Automatic annotation (TrEMBL):
PANTHER family: GLUCOKINASE, ROK (REPRESSOR, ORF, KINASE) FAMILY. This is ROK family transcriptional regulator. It comes from Cryobacterium melibiosiphilum. InterPro entries: ATPase_NBD (IPR043129), DIP2311-like_C (IPR054760), ROK (IPR000600), ROK_cs (IPR049874), WH-like_DNA-bd_sf (IPR036388), WH_DNA-bd_sf (IPR036390). Coiled coil: none annotated. Belongs to the ROK (NagC/XylR) family. Gene3D superfamilies: 3.30.420.40, Winged helix-like DNA-binding domain superfamily/Winged helix DNA-binding domain (1.10.10.10).
Protein backbone atom coordinates (compact mmCIF):
# COMPACT_ATOMS: atom_id res chain seq x y z
CA UNK A 1 0.00 0.00 0.00
CA UNK A 2 1.06 3.63 -0.40
CA UNK A 3 1.88 5.58 2.73
CA UNK A 4 1.48 9.00 1.10
CA UNK A 5 -1.90 9.22 2.83
CA UNK A 6 -1.86 8.40 6.52
CA UNK A 7 -3.55 5.05 7.27
CA UNK A 8 -6.67 5.45 9.33
CA UNK A 9 -7.24 1.96 10.68
CA UNK A 10 -5.55 -0.55 12.96
CA UNK A 11 -5.40 -3.01 10.02
CA UNK A 12 -3.03 -0.64 8.21
CA UNK A 13 -0.59 -0.68 11.11
CA UNK A 14 -0.88 -4.46 11.41
CA UNK A 15 -0.10 -4.82 7.69
CA UNK A 16 3.15 -2.95 8.36
CA UNK A 17 4.15 -5.51 10.96
CA UNK A 18 3.11 -8.42 8.74
CA UNK A 19 5.30 -6.99 5.97
CA UNK A 20 8.32 -5.79 7.96
CA UNK A 21 8.07 -8.12 11.01
CA UNK A 22 9.77 -5.83 13.55
CA UNK A 23 9.24 -2.11 14.13
CA UNK A 24 9.61 0.46 16.88
CA UNK A 25 6.95 2.93 17.87
CA UNK A 26 9.07 5.62 16.21
CA UNK A 27 9.28 3.54 13.01
CA UNK A 28 5.50 3.32 12.81
CA UNK A 29 5.12 7.07 13.33
CA UNK A 30 7.74 7.84 10.69
CA UNK A 31 6.36 5.45 8.04
CA UNK A 32 2.68 6.25 8.53
CA UNK A 33 2.77 9.90 9.49
CA UNK A 34 0.35 9.18 12.33
CA UNK A 35 0.57 11.07 15.61
CA UNK A 36 2.15 9.48 18.68
CA UNK A 37 -1.22 9.18 20.42
CA UNK A 38 -2.81 7.46 17.42
CA UNK A 39 0.13 5.09 17.04
CA UNK A 40 -0.01 4.28 20.75
CA UNK A 41 -3.72 3.49 20.41
CA UNK A 42 -3.11 1.18 17.44
CA UNK A 43 -0.21 -0.58 19.14
CA UNK A 44 -2.18 -1.01 22.37
CA UNK A 45 -5.04 -2.69 20.48
CA UNK A 46 -2.72 -5.03 18.60
CA UNK A 47 -0.70 -5.85 21.71
CA UNK A 48 -3.84 -6.59 23.73
CA UNK A 49 -4.94 -9.01 20.98
CA UNK A 50 -1.56 -10.70 21.09
CA UNK A 51 -0.86 -9.88 17.44
CA UNK A 52 2.31 -7.98 18.27
CA UNK A 53 4.75 -8.55 21.10
CA UNK A 54 6.94 -5.97 22.83
CA UNK A 55 10.55 -7.15 22.68
CA UNK A 56 12.45 -4.02 23.77
CA UNK A 57 15.67 -2.78 22.27
CA UNK A 58 14.24 0.03 20.17
CA UNK A 59 16.38 3.06 19.33
CA UNK A 60 16.17 6.02 21.64
CA UNK A 61 15.07 9.39 20.27
CA UNK A 62 16.67 11.31 23.11
CA UNK A 63 14.10 10.55 25.78
CA UNK A 64 13.09 7.13 27.04
CA UNK A 65 13.91 4.20 24.71
CA UNK A 66 11.28 3.53 22.07
CA UNK A 67 9.69 0.10 22.54
CA UNK A 68 10.32 -2.43 19.78
CA UNK A 69 7.49 -4.69 18.63
CA UNK A 70 7.28 -7.70 16.33
CA UNK A 71 4.45 -9.54 14.63
CA UNK A 72 3.40 -12.60 16.63
CA UNK A 73 2.82 -15.14 13.87
CA UNK A 74 2.12 -17.92 16.38
CA UNK A 75 -0.73 -15.99 18.06
CA UNK A 76 -3.25 -18.22 16.27
CA UNK A 77 -3.39 -20.76 13.47
CA UNK A 78 -5.11 -21.16 10.13
CA UNK A 79 -6.38 -24.30 8.43
CA UNK A 80 -5.47 -24.52 4.75
CA UNK A 81 -6.87 -27.12 2.34
CA UNK A 82 -5.21 -27.45 -1.08
CA UNK A 83 -7.49 -29.66 -3.21
CA UNK A 84 -6.15 -30.88 -6.53
CA UNK A 85 -7.63 -33.12 -9.19
CA UNK A 86 -6.23 -36.29 -7.63
CA UNK A 87 -5.42 -35.44 -4.03
CA UNK A 88 -5.41 -32.84 -1.28
CA UNK A 89 -3.20 -31.47 1.48
CA UNK A 90 -4.62 -30.16 4.74
CA UNK A 91 -2.25 -28.11 6.89
CA UNK A 92 -2.32 -26.23 10.14
CA UNK A 93 -0.39 -23.01 9.47
CA UNK A 94 0.70 -20.03 11.51
CA UNK A 95 -0.38 -16.49 10.64
CA UNK A 96 2.59 -16.14 8.26
CA UNK A 97 1.48 -19.16 6.25
CA UNK A 98 4.19 -21.49 7.56
CA UNK A 99 2.85 -25.06 7.83
CA UNK A 100 3.09 -26.48 11.35
CA UNK A 101 1.80 -29.95 10.51
CA UNK A 102 -0.07 -31.44 7.58
CA UNK A 103 -1.93 -34.46 6.20
CA UNK A 104 -1.91 -35.63 2.56
CA UNK A 105 -4.59 -37.79 0.96
CA UNK A 106 -5.42 -39.19 -2.48
CA UNK A 107 -8.87 -38.30 -3.84
CA UNK A 108 -10.69 -37.93 -7.15
CA UNK A 109 -12.14 -34.44 -7.22
CA UNK A 110 -14.87 -35.48 -9.68
CA UNK A 111 -16.40 -37.72 -6.99
CA UNK A 112 -18.19 -34.58 -5.82
CA UNK A 113 -18.01 -32.08 -2.97
CA UNK A 114 -19.72 -34.09 -0.23
CA UNK A 115 -17.33 -37.02 -0.63
CA UNK A 116 -14.18 -34.95 -1.03
CA UNK A 117 -14.94 -32.44 1.71
CA UNK A 118 -15.96 -35.26 4.03
CA UNK A 119 -12.48 -36.73 3.57
CA UNK A 120 -11.00 -33.28 4.18
CA UNK A 121 -12.90 -32.98 7.47
CA UNK A 122 -11.53 -36.33 8.64
CA UNK A 123 -8.02 -35.19 7.74
CA UNK A 124 -8.54 -31.97 9.72
CA UNK A 125 -9.47 -34.01 12.77
CA UNK A 126 -6.24 -35.98 12.38
CA UNK A 127 -4.24 -32.76 12.73
CA UNK A 128 -5.20 -32.60 16.40
CA UNK A 129 -6.24 -29.55 18.43
CA UNK A 130 -7.66 -26.86 16.14
CA UNK A 131 -9.20 -24.77 18.91
CA UNK A 132 -6.95 -21.80 18.12
CA UNK A 133 -7.92 -21.63 14.45
CA UNK A 134 -8.94 -18.15 13.28
CA UNK A 135 -9.80 -18.97 9.67
CA UNK A 136 -9.92 -21.60 6.93
CA UNK A 137 -8.60 -21.29 3.38
CA UNK A 138 -9.73 -23.76 0.72
CA UNK A 139 -8.10 -24.05 -2.70
CA UNK A 140 -9.83 -25.83 -5.59
CA UNK A 141 -8.79 -26.60 -9.20
CA UNK A 142 -11.44 -24.50 -10.92
CA UNK A 143 -12.84 -20.96 -11.31
CA UNK A 144 -14.04 -19.46 -8.02
CA UNK A 145 -16.51 -16.73 -7.13
CA UNK A 146 -14.21 -15.37 -4.43
CA UNK A 147 -16.81 -13.21 -2.69
CA UNK A 148 -19.39 -16.01 -2.52
CA UNK A 149 -16.99 -18.85 -1.72
CA UNK A 150 -18.35 -21.05 -4.53
CA UNK A 151 -16.92 -22.84 -7.55
CA UNK A 152 -18.24 -21.50 -10.87
CA UNK A 153 -18.65 -23.78 -13.92
CA UNK A 154 -15.50 -25.84 -13.23
CA UNK A 155 -14.33 -27.78 -16.31
CA UNK A 156 -13.39 -30.99 -14.45
CA UNK A 157 -15.08 -30.75 -11.03
CA UNK A 158 -18.27 -32.72 -11.65
CA UNK A 159 -21.00 -31.84 -9.17
CA UNK A 160 -19.20 -28.81 -7.71
CA UNK A 161 -20.79 -26.02 -9.78
CA UNK A 162 -22.32 -23.50 -7.38
CA UNK A 163 -21.62 -25.64 -4.31
CA UNK A 164 -21.37 -23.45 -1.18
CA UNK A 165 -17.92 -24.52 0.02
CA UNK A 166 -17.64 -21.64 2.48
CA UNK A 167 -21.05 -22.45 3.93
CA UNK A 168 -20.19 -26.15 4.20
CA UNK A 169 -17.11 -25.44 6.30
CA UNK A 170 -18.98 -22.71 8.17
CA UNK A 171 -21.41 -25.33 9.44
CA UNK A 172 -18.47 -27.14 11.08
CA UNK A 173 -16.27 -24.22 12.18
CA UNK A 174 -17.32 -20.83 13.54
CA UNK A 175 -14.54 -18.95 11.73
CA UNK A 176 -14.21 -17.07 8.41
CA UNK A 177 -13.80 -19.32 5.36
CA UNK A 178 -11.99 -18.23 2.18
CA UNK A 179 -12.29 -20.17 -1.10
CA UNK A 180 -9.68 -19.58 -3.78
CA UNK A 181 -8.47 -21.10 -7.03
CA UNK A 182 -5.50 -23.35 -6.26
CA UNK A 183 -3.22 -21.78 -8.87
CA UNK A 184 -4.00 -18.29 -7.51
CA UNK A 185 -3.02 -19.41 -4.03
CA UNK A 186 0.23 -20.81 -5.31
CA UNK A 187 0.99 -17.64 -7.27
CA UNK A 188 0.38 -15.50 -4.17
CA UNK A 189 3.04 -17.25 -2.11
CA UNK A 190 5.45 -17.42 -5.06
CA UNK A 191 5.14 -13.66 -5.54
CA UNK A 192 5.94 -13.09 -1.90
CA UNK A 193 8.93 -15.43 -1.82
CA UNK A 194 10.35 -14.15 -5.11
CA UNK A 195 9.58 -10.54 -4.17
CA UNK A 196 7.79 -9.91 -7.46
CA UNK A 197 4.68 -7.80 -7.96
CA UNK A 198 4.22 -9.08 -11.53
CA UNK A 199 4.22 -12.84 -11.78
CA UNK A 200 2.60 -15.76 -13.60
CA UNK A 201 2.48 -18.99 -11.62
CA UNK A 202 1.96 -22.16 -13.67
CA UNK A 203 0.70 -25.17 -11.73
CA UNK A 204 1.27 -28.33 -13.75
CA UNK A 205 -0.01 -31.60 -12.36
CA UNK A 206 -2.92 -33.78 -13.37
CA UNK A 207 -4.39 -30.61 -14.89
CA UNK A 208 -3.04 -27.17 -15.81
CA UNK A 209 -3.68 -23.89 -14.05
CA UNK A 210 -2.18 -20.41 -13.98
CA UNK A 211 -2.30 -17.83 -11.22
CA UNK A 212 -1.74 -14.17 -12.07
CA UNK A 213 -0.31 -11.64 -9.61
CA UNK A 214 0.07 -8.15 -11.06
CA UNK A 215 0.73 -4.88 -9.28
CA UNK A 216 0.91 -7.01 -6.14
CA UNK A 217 -2.69 -8.23 -6.43
CA UNK A 218 -4.23 -11.51 -7.54
CA UNK A 219 -6.01 -11.09 -10.88
CA UNK A 220 -9.18 -13.20 -10.66
CA UNK A 221 -11.26 -11.71 -13.46
CA UNK A 222 -14.97 -10.93 -13.53
CA UNK A 223 -16.09 -14.55 -13.13
CA UNK A 224 -13.02 -15.98 -11.41
CA UNK A 225 -11.75 -17.52 -14.65
CA UNK A 226 -8.62 -15.40 -15.21
CA UNK A 227 -5.53 -17.48 -15.96
CA UNK A 228 -7.35 -20.66 -16.98
CA UNK A 229 -4.91 -21.37 -19.81
CA UNK A 230 -5.45 -25.12 -19.57
CA UNK A 231 -8.72 -24.69 -21.40
CA UNK A 232 -7.56 -22.28 -24.06
CA UNK A 233 -6.96 -23.71 -27.54
CA UNK A 234 -3.54 -25.03 -28.50
CA UNK A 235 -1.64 -22.95 -31.02
CA UNK A 236 -1.73 -24.54 -34.50
CA UNK A 237 1.56 -25.59 -36.08
CA UNK A 238 2.04 -26.36 -39.78
CA UNK A 239 -0.84 -27.88 -41.72
CA UNK A 240 -3.82 -29.66 -40.14
CA UNK A 241 -3.21 -29.68 -36.38
CA UNK A 242 -4.06 -33.11 -35.04
CA UNK A 243 -3.10 -32.14 -31.50
CA UNK A 244 -5.63 -29.31 -31.49
CA UNK A 245 -8.46 -31.81 -32.05
CA UNK A 246 -7.77 -33.93 -29.00
CA UNK A 247 -10.76 -34.33 -26.71
CA UNK A 248 -10.43 -32.58 -23.34
CA UNK A 249 -12.03 -33.66 -20.09
CA UNK A 250 -13.99 -30.40 -20.09
CA UNK A 251 -15.88 -31.56 -23.22
CA UNK A 252 -14.15 -29.26 -25.70
CA UNK A 253 -11.53 -30.18 -28.28
CA UNK A 254 -8.02 -28.86 -28.68
CA UNK A 255 -7.49 -27.51 -25.15
CA UNK A 256 -3.92 -27.03 -23.95
CA UNK A 257 -4.70 -29.45 -21.12
CA UNK A 258 -5.70 -32.14 -23.64
CA UNK A 259 -2.13 -32.33 -24.94
CA UNK A 260 0.17 -30.97 -22.22
CA UNK A 261 -1.28 -31.95 -18.82
CA UNK A 262 -0.34 -34.82 -16.56
CA UNK A 263 -3.43 -36.82 -17.47
CA UNK A 264 -2.78 -36.28 -21.19
CA UNK A 265 0.80 -37.51 -20.86
CA UNK A 266 -0.42 -40.61 -19.01
CA UNK A 267 -2.89 -41.22 -21.85
CA UNK A 268 -0.27 -40.85 -24.56
CA UNK A 269 2.33 -43.03 -22.87
CA UNK A 270 -0.27 -45.71 -22.20
CA UNK A 271 -1.20 -45.65 -25.89
CA UNK A 272 2.46 -46.38 -26.65
CA UNK A 273 2.33 -49.46 -24.45
CA UNK A 274 4.21 -47.92 -21.52
CA UNK A 275 2.64 -48.78 -18.16
CA UNK A 276 2.03 -45.49 -16.35
CA UNK A 277 -0.88 -44.38 -14.16
CA UNK A 278 -0.03 -40.94 -12.76
CA UNK A 279 1.93 -37.74 -13.48
CA UNK A 280 4.41 -38.79 -10.80
CA UNK A 281 5.21 -41.91 -12.80
CA UNK A 282 5.62 -39.78 -15.93
CA UNK A 283 8.23 -37.71 -14.07
CA UNK A 284 10.02 -40.88 -12.97
CA UNK A 285 10.23 -42.04 -16.59
CA UNK A 286 11.67 -38.69 -17.66
CA UNK A 287 14.27 -38.77 -14.90
CA UNK A 288 15.17 -42.32 -15.94
CA UNK A 289 15.72 -41.10 -19.51
CA UNK A 290 12.81 -42.92 -21.17
CA UNK A 291 12.93 -41.63 -24.76
CA UNK A 292 9.17 -41.56 -25.33
CA UNK A 293 8.49 -39.78 -22.04
CA UNK A 294 11.22 -37.21 -22.68
CA UNK A 295 9.89 -36.51 -26.18
CA UNK A 296 6.30 -36.08 -25.01
CA UNK A 297 7.20 -33.87 -22.04
CA UNK A 298 9.43 -31.66 -24.17
CA UNK A 299 6.55 -31.18 -26.63
CA UNK A 300 4.22 -30.47 -23.71
CA UNK A 301 6.62 -27.71 -22.68
CA UNK A 302 6.41 -26.19 -26.15
CA UNK A 303 2.61 -26.31 -26.06
CA UNK A 304 2.63 -24.61 -22.67
CA UNK A 305 5.12 -22.05 -23.94
CA UNK A 306 2.78 -21.17 -26.80
CA UNK A 307 -0.08 -20.66 -24.35
CA UNK A 308 1.96 -18.57 -21.93
CA UNK A 309 3.54 -16.44 -24.67
CA UNK A 310 0.28 -14.59 -25.25
CA UNK A 311 0.06 -13.76 -21.54
CA UNK A 312 3.65 -12.52 -21.58
CA UNK A 313 2.92 -10.21 -24.51
CA UNK A 314 -0.24 -8.84 -22.91
CA UNK A 315 0.76 -8.64 -19.23
CA UNK A 316 4.59 -8.34 -19.30
CA UNK A 317 5.42 -10.30 -16.13
CA UNK A 318 8.79 -10.21 -14.39
CA UNK A 319 8.67 -13.90 -13.46
CA UNK A 320 7.08 -17.12 -14.68
CA UNK A 321 7.38 -19.78 -11.99
CA UNK A 322 6.40 -23.41 -12.60
CA UNK A 323 5.19 -25.70 -9.82
CA UNK A 324 3.28 -28.96 -9.52
CA UNK A 325 4.26 -32.55 -10.22
CA UNK A 326 5.45 -31.96 -13.79
CA UNK A 327 7.87 -29.24 -12.64
CA UNK A 328 10.08 -32.09 -11.44
CA UNK A 329 10.78 -32.90 -15.09
CA UNK A 330 13.22 -29.98 -14.92
CA UNK A 331 14.85 -28.74 -18.11
CA UNK A 332 13.13 -31.36 -20.27
CA UNK A 333 9.93 -29.41 -19.65
CA UNK A 334 11.35 -25.94 -19.02
CA UNK A 335 13.44 -25.81 -22.22
CA UNK A 336 10.29 -26.23 -24.29
CA UNK A 337 8.48 -23.47 -22.37
CA UNK A 338 11.41 -21.06 -22.74
CA UNK A 339 11.88 -21.89 -26.41
CA UNK A 340 8.34 -20.90 -27.38
CA UNK A 341 8.00 -17.92 -25.03
CA UNK A 342 11.16 -16.31 -26.39
CA UNK A 343 10.27 -17.17 -30.00
CA UNK A 344 6.77 -15.72 -29.84
CA UNK A 345 7.17 -12.56 -27.75
CA UNK A 346 9.03 -9.31 -28.21
CA UNK A 347 12.52 -8.64 -26.90
CA UNK A 348 11.14 -5.85 -24.74
CA UNK A 349 8.67 -8.16 -23.00
CA UNK A 350 11.31 -10.82 -22.31
CA UNK A 351 14.56 -8.95 -21.78
CA UNK A 352 14.23 -9.13 -17.97
CA UNK A 353 11.81 -12.06 -17.83
CA UNK A 354 12.79 -14.89 -15.49
CA UNK A 355 11.37 -18.36 -16.18
CA UNK A 356 12.07 -20.76 -13.33
CA UNK A 357 10.76 -23.65 -11.25
CA UNK A 358 9.35 -23.28 -7.76
CA UNK A 359 11.43 -24.04 -4.70
CA UNK A 360 8.44 -24.29 -2.34
CA UNK A 361 7.58 -27.95 -2.73
CA UNK A 362 4.19 -29.54 -2.18
CA UNK A 363 3.24 -27.24 0.71
CA UNK A 364 3.41 -24.01 -1.30
CA UNK A 365 -0.32 -24.14 -2.00
CA UNK A 366 -1.37 -24.34 1.65
CA UNK A 367 1.03 -21.53 2.53
CA UNK A 368 -0.55 -19.34 -0.14
CA UNK A 369 -4.04 -20.18 1.07
CA UNK A 370 -3.08 -19.32 4.64
CA UNK A 371 -1.70 -15.94 3.54
CA UNK A 372 -4.81 -15.10 1.56
CA UNK A 373 -6.98 -16.12 4.52
CA UNK A 374 -4.92 -13.93 6.86
CA UNK A 375 -5.33 -11.01 4.44
CA UNK A 376 -9.11 -11.40 4.68
CA UNK A 377 -9.18 -11.76 8.46
CA UNK A 378 -6.94 -8.75 8.98
CA UNK A 379 -8.62 -6.57 6.35
CA UNK A 380 -10.13 -3.25 7.36
CA UNK A 381 -13.70 -4.52 7.62
CA UNK A 382 -12.88 -7.81 9.35
CA UNK A 383 -10.21 -7.00 11.90
CA UNK A 384 -12.49 -5.10 14.27
CA UNK A 385 -14.66 -8.18 14.69
CA UNK A 386 -11.57 -10.35 15.15
CA UNK A 387 -10.20 -8.02 17.83
CA UNK A 388 -13.55 -8.06 19.66
CA UNK A 389 -13.48 -11.84 19.67
CA UNK A 390 -10.00 -12.21 21.14
CA UNK A 391 -9.44 -9.19 23.41
Amino acid sequence: MSWNDAPSHVSDVLSLFRDRKRLSRTDVMRITGLSRSTVNQRLTSLHAAGLISAIGGGESTGGRPSSLFEFNQRRASLLAVDIGASGFIVALCDLEGTPIRHVTRRVNVWEGPERVLGDVLVAMEELGDTGGVWGIGVGVPGPVDFAAGRVVSPPIMTGWDGFDIAGWFGSHFAVPVVVENDANARAAIEARVLKSDNLIGLKLGTGIGAGLVFNGQIVRGNEGAAGDIGHTRTAPTVGPDEVALLQCRCGNEGCVEASASGWALVRDLTALGIAVTSPTEVVQLVIAGNIAAVRLVRQAGRTLGDAVADLVSILNPAVIVVSGQLADCGEVLMSGIRERVYQRTSTLATRRLRITTSTLGDLGGVSGLALITADQIFGTDAIDEQLRRVV
